[in-house]
Amino acid sequence: MEQKAFIKVTCSILTISDTRNLTTDTSGRLIQSQLELAGHQVISRVIVPDDAALIKQKMNDLATNGSFCLITNGGTGIARRDITYEALFATIQQEIPGFGEIFRMLSYEEVGSRAMVSRAFAGFSENGLLIFALPGSSNACKLAMEKLIIPELPHLIAERQK
């Protein structure tokens, strides 16, 4: 099996929540920890309320700060306040549909049929930013980071640079 070179990826984390702050944001902290343990760099971790305009504005700000990857958490369910999908999916130029499909499959193994309400997604935005939109649950974030994002992040960035 061919050994591939490790690519250190510069990342930002955006937590979408009306109730969390940097102290209570366990999912954002978990994502940051997982990225740093894997050798990646986190240059920004911010929280924004469930407001489409603010989410888009912060995503655009983070897209210009040198990040290659943005991982969001929160707002991917079906509650009326869950608007992450509507706010960010429209910015995706090249979707990675397998991410959402596999994430829901793995989630199904843990939480059963409730996994179907997750609107988690991944793809590259118009400006080339790799976006992963995760649920706000720490268990869901841990699953996505360990099983999907950490193993494939360098590969996804390398493929995009071809």
Automatic annotation (TrEMBL):
GO cellular component: cytosol
Pathway: Cofactor biosynthesis; molybdopterin biosynthesis
Pfam family, one: MoCF_biosynth
InterPro entries hit by this protein: MoaB, MoaB/Mog-like_dom_sf, MoaB/Mog_dom, MoCF_biosynth_CS
UniProt-listed GO biological process terms: Mo-molybdopterin cofactor biosynthetic process
Residue stretches making up the MoaB/Mog domain: 12-156
Key words of the record: Molybdenum cofactor biosynthesis
Function: May be involved in the biosynthesis of molybdopterin.
Recorded family membership: Belongs to the MoaB/Mog family.
Cited PANTHER family: MOLYBDENUM COFACTOR BIOSYNTHESIS PROTEIN B
Protein name: Molybdenum cofactor biosynthesis protein B
